[in-house]
Amino acid sequence: MSKWWGLFFIFLMGCIEAPKNATSPQNYSPSNPTVNRTNSETTLISGVPPSLAKQGINYRYDPDMSVPSGVTVTSQNLPSWASLNSSTGVITGSPTILGNTNNITLTAVKGIVYTQIGPFSLRVVGDPLYDSQWHLKNNGQSSFASNGGVSGVDLNLQKSIEENITGRGVVVAVSDSGLELTHPDLQNKLFDYHKDYNDGASNYLGDPTSSSARGDHGTSVAGIIAAEGWNGIGGRGIAPGALVSGLNYVSSTQAQVFQLDQATGPYSIFNYSYGYNFYPSSFPWVDTYQEQLLFGYTTGRGRLGSVYVKSAGNEYRVCDSDYGDTFPINGGICYQHSANIDPENNTIPMIVVGALNANGHKSSYSSVGSSLWISAFGGEFGSSNPAIVTTDQAGCNKGYSRSNVTTSNFMKGDDELNEDCDYTHTFNGTSSAAPMVSGVIALMLEANPSLTAREVKYILAVTADKITDPNFTGRPPHENSDFFSLSGHTYEQGWVTNNAGFSFHNHFGFGKVNADRAVAAAKVVSLGWGDLVHLNKDFDNPDYQNSTNRAIPDESAVGTSSTISIGESLYIESVQVKLNITHGRPGDLGIELTSPRGTKSILLNINNSFQVALDDNGSPEWVADLTDMVLSSNAFYGENSQGTWTLRVIDGLGTGTGYEFDQNNSQTGTLTQWDLNISGHY
Fold this sequence. Notes:
This protein is of the alpha+beta class. The protein is built from 8 helices and 28 strands. A hairpin with a 5-residue loop joins strand 24 (about 590-595) and strand 25. About 50% of the residues are buried.
């Protein structure tokens, strides 16, 4: 009997066909990396998982068919960052580990029936320093500093990158100290219209590469904007699809002809990560420069308008005692330096950017003022708290990172992430914050190339995140802040919501830039505003002038007030004031402007940084009088211009002659004249 059963079993096995979809593992090859194998004609799972994943972009695989009920899907050799849903066969995850993972299989089983996909490989491409770029995605990482930031405090651009919006087709001019055209993370991101203001060429076109051996500011700025992404080296730009051109204006003589030229050219965005010396002895307001900016702002980019972005400044703390060895204040006391003192910050087109740190607070150094438009990340100093990781001059013989520095192993090339010293983790300042906004604008212009420059400013304002900063008290950050006790006076207001519904803060502008919200708005916004109208941009119309000759009472919160009435009904886009004040110590003075709708803006704080003025050689130079000084405010954005505007000048407590602390040293003055310009649309 056993003999017949054995023969019957052999006969039966010979008549059974192999499963039709079965494929021997030996048939797998790199050119055919995904193979379906099943032990039944019933397929439980199908589809080819994507073989390429990008660091920082969520990976997802959905089977081509719905996995039947009762099926369990398992995996082998799936990367640790990936998760498998055992019921649906869906794979999700955020790739973190660069390189290849081989021999991955998925097996769907129901009873004795199974279907297998694989083996297949999955390659993750990315940038080794991306995980340290907290401004792109903040996970609380320290980025080579002692402390980390707050998770979630970043530019919020994940959705835009998921949608593959990278700034393609947008060109950014980096007007700065130079630009290293051969940097490995920038050489593929260049728009070949660079300018060298030092070579004598009549058209200025040339190689802007800096000769500095101590770091090239412009190279680091350019990396924040557009360093190549997912190329296996360094970090990544905010808009890695954008292109940059270098203009070495800062390292030139900065002659006016260069100043005007660096505001022109075939660029979508101009990034200015520079500012005037902290201690001007005069206020070099240049009408022709504002005219040049306005020309680009209204006619550039095919009459859509060029976009101009500028750093606010890094002098907030110069009055602190920490700086006593640097600045000869000798006990003198002043409020923080105002960004409004830089004339270029007060031009109509300029988007002035303040800096935030990895905790989402104002960076300790970031200058403040009513000329700010928005804030982005500049970090701190990269030692105790994170600064910004970006490109540096290539090689360990030059740059911020080089073999003979002592700041960190990373900075001297003793870290595998920076063996060639091509990157730095100590770049900071509003110099970093400005290119972050330029990068976000590049994303916006890819999403909607038809946006006007004025629409860009509007979108940034309406999509910004309002910041709550526990460090803001409304009083100076000085150790002797009790000195600032002028009865009845408010030194800084905090958030003010104007009559048009816009909230504004002298420390942050309209708030923190929010990339995804700005890009989403860019896709749909079309304002249809008419031409940009100026009531008195040249400050030569007597209808918008008050030659008041009003005495300014000493050490009085009441101050002196003067008014100008506006008959035109414009929706405000910019407000400028031109001042002429005689005063023996203008560092005492505060300037406030109130709109017809009751919104007050502080244009200059009392006891300001003119109290510690230096000349160009670093010697004390007393600044007397405010002559043709132009100040601006964005706090009135969207309001109606019609009605009576009130300027008030307040004399704070004096700090005496010779920079000595002396409340009894009186100085008085006169508001001789002020002019008002309002720009906007009907």
